[in-house]
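Let's practice the habit of predicting before peeking. Look at the sequence and jot down your guess about where helices and strands might fall. Then scroll down.
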Amino acid sequence: MTTRSELGADGERRAAALLEALGWRVLDKNWRVGSKLAGRTAELDLVMDDGSALVFVEVKARRGVAHGSPAEAVTVRKQSQIARAASAYLAAHPEFAERDCRFDVVAVSFGPGPVRMEHLRDAFRL
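Done guessing? Here is the structure:
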């Protein structure tokens, strides 16, 4: 049986490959901000350059849809955490300060049957 972290890592690898096939470039993977000790961490799954914008990509992987689709797991609370991490990323990387930015989601559904991936461009705004 695959662990939750292995499932997530597999989903992130597949999402990165999907976007790289479109000509996008991975700038960072699993970029974290905050302190685990303080209990306030946030992570950016993928930070990518699509040629025209800096894209913060949230990857959600699920084994099935019994608890909803993977994309539905990107709640308003999760969006806020991603936005906070994106702000910290931009502060840490001033070379991207003038770039257009957006938030995409890649939903990865494992089984039954073939793996399904859905890329939601500009999935949310904050």
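How did you do? The helical segments are 4-20, 76-92.
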